[in-house]
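Problem: given the chain below (376 residues), write out its structure.
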Amino acid sequence: MATYSLATLASAFSWNFFSFALFRAVTGVGIGGEYAAINSAVDELIPGRVRGTVDLIVNGTFWIGGTAGSLAAIYLLSGHAIGGNHSWRFAFGIGGLLGIVIFLLRLSVPESPRWLMLRGQEKRAEEIVDQIESKAWATNSHSDPDTEPLKIKVRDHTPWPEIFGNMLGENRKRTYLGLMLMIAQAFFFNAVFFSYGLVGKTFFHFEDKQIPWHLLPFSIASFLGPLTIGRLFDTVGRKKMISITYGSAGILLAAITVPFAMGGLNGTGVEICFTVIFFITSSAASAAYLTVSEIFPLELRAFAIAIFYALGTLAGGVGAPLLFGLIIQTHSRTLLALGYGLGALLMIAAAVCEAWFGVEAAGKSLESISKPLQSS
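Solution.
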């Protein structure tokens, strides 16, 4: 009887693990594709003078979901709403419902007129441009182009050798910059934000049901950051603001490593510090997607976002949880502080890269930043 029970439990665990991994992978494919699609869409459909502001706010809405998720978890996991082992299922179900809403919203987003022109669909491109211009004139929000008209060659696809040749040749420095920005922010958030539940349980003895309360301020600050300072990325400029936000986040995180290692910060103190840091870091992370979507030619803009997002997630989203999982198991404040120091160092290095060979794209048309590969 005991053997049968153990076999049943093992089978159930294996299926639960497999099904979770499978559907989480499907979710990851959708999210990864949407990051590429929405950032390129924002850049191509929003006027250059406010492109940075809009892009940062759109990316920052990720944290509205984070805030809603924390509040939902607080309610569902309290035991007062849905008992037993069903509450977490409803929490997951909220994400599915939001996915359906996003799918419906995406149906109203027009195709890129630029992409249509490259594929020889001039009539459809002109119809979309006419619709956009009529709305712009009606709201007096139009602007004159800052580039000369371009002649383009129409073709049905862009060859892979040409794509990688551009990224590793002419735009090699921009590729290094995009990778550095993406890896730094991905490592930072996965190391600091997404591991904090385990940190709180291990070092500050938080109860499981209280963890969403402790994460809630981080999510709120991460949304308010792009909302309040996003405009500065258009007025002050990309290079200055990206360098400042990445550098400030790294310096502030580095500043708390010693007090944390020495036991001088309790849970409340750490959370206050992290809330301030995430207010800044969220804008920096959003600006990474903005940068990659602006500085590459039209034909590979979405692909560049996708590949940098994937590589950044591989380094930061896989590497950071593995590293910090091992560190937290040691119960060593010193080792955890060193891990935070590594995240701080990556952010500072990204700030230096941006200041050194970043591209000032504020207020400029996309074609003036990087001409299409099919232009002549």
